[in-house]
Amino acid sequence: MGISVSVLVFTCISIIGVSGVFLITGLTGMFSLGQASFMAVGAYTSGLLVVRFGFPFPLAAVVGVGAGVLAGLVVGIPTVRLRRDYVALVTFGFGEAIIAILNNLTQITGGAMGLVGIPPVTTLPFVGISAMLSLFIVWNFKFSRFGRQCIAVRTDELAARSMGIHADGIKLLVFLLAAGFSAYAGVLYGFYTTYVDPGLFNWTRSAEWIIMVFFGGLGSVSGAVLSAILLGTLPEVLRFASEWRILLYCIIVLAIINYRPKGLLGEREIFLSFGKGLRKGGGKP
Amino acid sequence: MSEWVLEARHISKRFGGVQAVQDFSLHLPQGGIISIIGPNGAGKTTVFNLITGVYPLDSGEILLKGEQISGLPQHVITRKGIARTFQNIRLFLGLNVLENVLTALDPDGSYSFLDAVLQLPPKKRGERDSKSRGMELLRMVGLEPYAGEQPANLPYGLQRKLEIARALAAKPKVLLLDEPAAGLNPREVQDFIELVYRLHQDHSLSIILIEHRMQVVMEMSDWIYVMNFGKLLAEGLPTEVQKNPEVIKAYIGEEESC
Question: Which of A34, A166, A226, B5 has its CA 20 to 30 A from that of A211?
Answer without folding.
Answer: A166
